[in-house]
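Long-time lurker. I teach an intro course on protein structure, and each term I like to show students one example going from raw sequence to a predicted 3D structure in token notation. This year I'd like something fresh instead of my usual example. Would anyone be willing to generate the tokens for the chain below so I can use it in lecture? Attribution to the forum is fine with me.
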Amino acid sequence: MSPNNLDPQDQDLLYELFALGLLEPEQMAEVRARLEAGDAEAIEGLRHATVLTSSLAYVAPESKPSSKLRRRLMLAAGAPERGFGWAWIGGLAATCAALLVITFNMREDVGNREAQIAQLQSRLVASEALVAQARDLYDFLRQPSTITVKFGDNQPAPPKGQVFLNRDRGVLLFAGNLPAMPAGKIFEMWFVPKGGGAPIPAGLFRAQDGQGVHFQRGAIDPASIAAIAVTLEPEAGSTSPTLPILFAAPVGAE
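-- Reply from a regular --
Happy to contribute to a lecture. Here you go:
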């Protein structure tokens, strides 16, 4: 008796016998293989059979199966009626235990897959953010009105790099040879105004392996800025620069 060659009613009986552990070994193996392969029809059939056999288990000590059901089960199992007894309860218990193990493993596998999907989604969001940032920077750099200022080229191993200023979009800083950040410290950029006014805080940034990038967005007036300076400050930032100034990139009038 194979599930592939049975009508729906006999298929129901087949899964009931499987749940009771009453099939021949090769038939048990065939049904089990379909379940392990994720066959939707087999899984649904076993679910219905488990519900039925489980309900029988609760009333087993107090009543007997109907003669019609008893005869169907006996004939399908190939056993004489007198030898039936209640040995099927042990088979049912073993089957239920196996189903519990399979269910637990399936739930664990689903949980692992959901965690992997969440991780991939997080990476995708981060990648999309990086792509958007790269496009923004590219668009900033290609603007004809963007001014470029270099610093540190003529000094022995100082911080060096470039500053890009755009009247409508802000300031972009690329810096190398930066000192290591002590614990509790962070780099802070400043706009040093012309005419001796107090430096204006222009954002915090970190560096890795001596390399730092910082984009301070917002409209500016390059003609009013004498220099772009960077200092090391407490992680919360400062309202005025802490000496010494690591470097200052002079900005010429637009």
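Some talking points for your students: Helices lie at 8-20, 25-36, 40-59, 67-77, 88-141. The longest strand covers residues 225-234.
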